[in-house]
Amino acid sequence: MCNKIIVFDVNETLLDTGALNPIFKRVFGDERILRQWFSELIIYSQSLTLSCSYMPFGELAVAVLQMVAEIRGTILSEQDINEFRQRLATLPAHPDALPALEMLRAAGFRLVTLTNSSTQAGQKVLEQSGLAHFFEKQFSVEEVKRFKPATENYTSVAQRLGVNADLLRLVAAHTWDILGATACGWKGALVARPGNAVLRVGKQPDIVEKDLIAVAHRIIIIDRPE
Question: Model pTM?
Answer without folding.
Answer: 0.95
